[in-house]
Amino acid sequence: TQTPAQRVSQYLAMPVEEHVAFLKQEDLTLAELLNRLPIPNRPEALVPPRLPPYFRTLDRERRARMTEECARGGRLATSIQQVWGPLFTPPPPPYIPKDQFMAMMKEAIETRFRDTTTAVQKLRARSGKIVFVRLPVSGGLKALENQITPRNQTWEPLLQRTGVPGIHFEDFPELAGFNCPEWSHLSAGDSVEFSKRLVPHLRTALQM
């Protein structure tokens, strides 16, 4: 719900944003620029993995779309591809034994399963309809996810424990043929086409 002032602000801002370039001020602070320095790991001090650079736009309907620069591939897409591995598989802290760290991760996954099952039950108690959708990934990220989070340990148990129908992009030829330029997100055009192809499967899963 928006206040009248917020609605007026959005109404006035949209035409301006479509014709004027804006800088992300928070990305230009000294602290943020220092965080981008390539500092190597040191004993007892691991540098956290960096986040991907900005590569999306937001339209007046608040839909995020990949920028054309990233969708074309090239240096921006390649630089983002190099982020996913360190971001999703950081080394365990040096002060935690590896066995203990792996046990902690296993417990965290189990907790997520329990929390998700509880959330599903609450939604269904309010007559909510639910379907899980596995969106496309590509390239090295897909290979990494298949290795560290295989379907038989993540996707399949999720559906079994919650009793929720699922739509996995790999299970349908019309959904499986998309390529993600930076391995994790669809281009603007492909996101629209994917959504069109997904709708019939959603209707079937939700019995609509």
What is the fold's blueprint, element by element?
Elements: H1 4-17, H2 30-35, E1 56-58, E2 64-66, H3 68-71, H4 75-88, H5 98-125, E3 132-134, H6 139-148, H7 155-162, E4 166-168, H8 173-176, H9 188-205
In percent, how much strand structure appears in the residues? Answer: 5-15%
The figure for the number of domains is: 1
Strand order of the largest sheet: 1-2
The class by helix and strand makeup works out as mainly alpha
The best one-word shape is globular
Unreliable sequence segments: none
Global Rg: 21 Å
Measured between the Cα atoms of the first and last residue, the distance is 28 Å
Total count of strands:
4
Secondary-structure element order, N to C: HHEEHHHEHHEHH
Largest sheet: 2 strands, antiparallel
Q: What is the arithmetic mean of pLDDT?
A: 90
The helix fraction, in percent, is: 40-55%
Number of helices: 9
